[in-house]
Design a protein that fits this description.
homodimer; alpha/beta
Chain lengths: 300, 300
């Protein structure tokens, strides 16, 4: 029972703004499934069934609150091809719930290989993640020709990209914060994203374009700098919750209409049932997602 | 008929040196499968069967010539979970042929996610790539704490890493060649790899340690710089052949014993049958791999 493939008639950033405004949320829910932490009833399933059931449960719980869900592909790849098949089930279920999918895969490779990745994640084959994914995280280390296949496909098929700028982990500073041309590399990446959009037909118009940037919610000062350097990029702000970011830390990322940024929490939401005696494990998940949504709304 | 999981009693770099010397080769054969370019008999199979059969054929053709095979995971991911299952078949077949596998996946993510990737690619579950993979390419953009899970696992289970330094594509210069602390970022990455090994028990001894570096065969000057900055890293030199690198370009990468570097060619070898009227498509593949092997041996 494969659901209908989502139609994407408007550019990604327009659809994103519509969804933000229609559900009144700036929250992304990350799906980082670790089977040892699953509710007991799911832990007894085989890993593929457990991953799929958990992902479906999270989607059902957050569909009215999350602007997008963000499955982290590593937690599926840990189970090999069966894990990928579970991911397939999760992204298809997102379509049945009408929730856009931001796949957190952080891919990056030379042009011919990047084109193969673009097929995998933005392609047409319904037996792959391609038709079910709305946006993808990518790594900029290999430069412009590694971004182009994703960018071209984003323009053609109305998808979105989030390029790593300043990641949420402490080690992010090791290379991203090194001074190059008088400013940190992460700002160089942010300016490059802005320039690449200006140079690409179909990405050069509108308040926002298809290349967003990833900046940790854990680094509010860097966030304000990136916001200024990349005025046409939606910002994805991971690290809300368990990693220590707060709604107040990310307020500088939003524009006057409360658009242009989305904050992401994973473990703090999806494992909200831990240590509680509840009948339905998805209830605390839904409740925590609403708390985080409201917390973000309150700082606008 | 799953083959026996390879035992890895000696550290990766020792096993690598033994294999280089026992087969007399410095060549890595990249497996970048594009079904449209397959021999006609394979194109009629379903994609999963075609990918697996092509990978097996390449392995059978180059098993005596290639130090390692290097499957590029993007070309499998393009076919979703079935592509991953084909990759599984290919890496298991490598074990039956006794050929070590360098998986070209270029992963990189924050610590908890990197640990999940390390499980996927260096873990024990025989239904995943984990037990069948000897070495992995990784991306340094997220810094030291994104490398640690791979490094620790490499030390424990005798695997190898190849961290991207200066990639073979023109866009590699966009960020990798920016000046930081008075030298290009790719040299900063090379020095960091050397330092990380020195700081890690089990990685700090021997002529070479578990963190190798990727430097395009297409950039001989940068290659010589990286060689000097990272004396304990094996260098992986992609871009031989179709991308324009030659054996003479890479000679500076080898030590006095002809160790410490491996050059990689993909399309120039695996599609060597194109435009030829041959009965067995693997024969030109074998012949071209021998030509490339001999060309590398001749410059030592």
């Amino acid at each position: 029972m494969t659901p209908s493939i989502p139609t994407r008639e408007a550019p990604f950033t327009e659809r994103l703004a519509d969804r933000v405004q229609s559900i009144g949320s700036r929250l992304i829910v990350g799906i980082d499934p670790v089977i040892d932490r699953f509710p007991e009833a799911l832990r007894s399933l085989d890993p593929e069934a457990a991953l799929a059931a958990f992902g479906h449960g999270i989607l059902d719980a957050v569909a009215d609150v999350a602007v997008m869900v963000k499955p982290q592909i590593a937690f599926f790849e840990r189970y090999g091809w069966r894990g990928w098949r579970a991911l397939q089930s999760v992204v298809e279920h997102a379509a049945t719930r009408g929730v856009p999918v931001l796949l957190d895969a952080k891919r990056g490779d030379i042009g011919s290989t990047a084109a193969a990745y673009a097929d995998a994640f933005f392609g047409d084959d319904p037996e792959t993640p391609g038709p079910w994914v709305d946006a993808l995280t990518i790594n900029p280390y290999l430069g412009k020709d590694s971004i182009d296949p994703f960018l071209n496909r984003s323009v053609e098929s109305h998808r979105g990209l989030f390029v790593l700028s300043r990641t949420s982990n402490p080690g992010g500073a090791d290379f991203q914060s090194r001074a190059t041309d008088g400013e940190p590399l992460y700002l160089g990446v942010a300016r490059a994203a802005t320039r690449w959009m200006a140079e690409t037909s179909g990405a050069d118009g509108g308040a926002y374009g298809p290349i967003g940037l990833v900046v940790g919610a854990t680094y509010p000062e860097e966030l304000a700098e990136v916001r200024e350097a990349a005025p046409r990029s939606w910002l994805l702000l991971p690290g809300l919750g368990v990693q220590g970011g707060t709604a107040k830390d990310v307020v500088s990322a939003f524009d006057g209409a409360g658009l242009g940024a989305l904050a992401s929490s994973s473990r703090g939401i999806i494992y909200a049932y831990e240590g509680r005696d509840v009948g339905d494990w998805t209830e605390p998940v839904h409740a925590q997602a609403k708390v985080d949504r409201d917390s973000l709304q309150s700082v606008l």
